[in-house]
Amino acid sequence: RPPPAYLFGTIHVPYTRVWDFIPDNSKAAFHASSSVYFELDLTDPYTISGLASCQMLPHGENLQDVLPRELYRRLKRPLDYIKLMLPHWMTPDQRGKGLYADYLFNAIAGNWERKRPVWVMLMVNSLTETDIRSRGVPVLDLYLAQEAERMKKTTGAVERVEEQCHPLNGLNFSQV
């Protein structure tokens, strides 16, 4: 229909991993569009703080209170190992940009003992050496949002934080 509307699905990976494989007609459609709407507005500080707070356990609980003792220990050991290995996994480019291992670990896993189990599971899945080496490169969604802002396009979101958080937070322990 005039004007045309496009739907482009993204994945939450560093844009540099997929950018070269995105067809030119998709890139042209993005550039020609005057408005761009994303899943969430990752450039909005309220969205980011909302995502952070929805991941926390209620009423000051700790993960140690809700996980069986052995499972908690099986989770803590690799996190301690990752914290130890992180300086070795970082790239010279990351160091050149002023990223420090402690800062990076805290940005990814900080306060993990206060998070709900489902969010800890997702966090652990992103703590691989490959993922660490790509930190500092925006995920595709964020890259496109930043480009849209730079090009002065109208931007927005089709979901609210609650619409993403409540389904995940509604999973029971055995589902997680």
UniProtKB/TrEMBL annotation:
Keyword Lipid metabolism, does the record have it? no
Q: Name one GO molecular function term.
A: metal ion binding
Keywords attached to this Swiss-Prot or TrEMBL record, sorted alphabetically, are: Cell membrane, Glycoprotein, Hydrolase, Membrane, Metal-binding, Metalloprotease, Protease, Signal, Transmembrane, Transmembrane helix, Wnt signaling pathway
Record's superkingdom? Eukaryota
Q: Which InterPro entries match?
A: TIKI1/2-like, TraB/PrgY/GumN_fam
Q: What is its EC number?
A: 3.4.-.-
- Gene assigned in the entry: Trabd2b_2
Q: EC class of this enzyme? A: hydrolase
Role, per record: Metalloprotease that acts as a negative regulator of the Wnt signaling pathway by mediating the cleavage of the N-terminal residues of a subset of Wnt proteins. Following cleavage, Wnt proteins become oxidized and form large disulfide-bond oligomers, leading to their inactivation.
Q: Where is it mainly found?
A: membrane
Q: What is this protein called?
A: Metalloprotease TIKI
Q: Which GO terms describe its biological process?
A: negative regulation of Wnt signaling pathway; proteolysis; Wnt signaling pathway
Question: GO CC annotations?
Answer: organelle membrane; plasma membrane
> What membrane topology is annotated for this entry?
Single-pass type I membrane protein
**Signal peptide span per the entry?**
none
Which family, according to the similarity comment? Belongs to the TIKI family.
Instruction: Name where it's found.
Output: Cell membrane; Membrane
Q: How is the cofactor bound?
A: Divalent metal cations. Mn(2+) or Co(2+).
